[in-house]
Amino acid sequence: QVQLVESGGGLAQPGGSLRLSCDASGFAFGRSAMSWARQPPGQGPERVAGVYKDGSGKYYTNHVGGRFTIWRNNAENKVNLQMNDLKPEDTALYYCAAVEDDFDMAVISRYRYWGQGTQVTVSS
How far apart are CA 118 and CA 124, in angstroms? Predict the structure, then answer.
């Protein structure tokens, strides 16, 4: 069955860093675009970053651009998110998601498979 397992969340101080990882199985990872989304407390899910099937293209939303970096390893079925210069507003449950088509990453409702999420809390 499809599994997306996130890891690497935790507590960080403002200005600190965390690296999230997502291990995927049960579907054609190399034929899926991959995204990270997050859900802040009391809010709906929002896109964070995504990477094309072959890794050639990436996107970042405005609130994380320049601070977060996404990359994937198709040989290991893994996608990572390096988060630097963390801010309290980055506090959220972070999800890894598989998307059928590269251009579907722009529409969160088209994300096909979701992990269970990993909590990131940024606080002093």
Answer: 19
